[in-house]
Amino acid sequence: MIDVKGMREQALMVALNKTAIVAETDHKGVITYANDKFLEISEYSSEELIGQTHSLVNSGYHPKSFIENLWKTIKSGQVWRGEICNKSKSGKIYWVDTCIAPIYAADNSIVKFVAIRFDITEKKQLAEKLVTEIHSHQESLTVLGQLAATVAHEINNPLAAISMFTQMMESELPPNSPFQEHIAVIKRNTDTCKKQFKFY
Question: What is the Cα–Cα distance from 11 to 18, expressed in whole angstroms?
Answer without folding.
Answer: 11
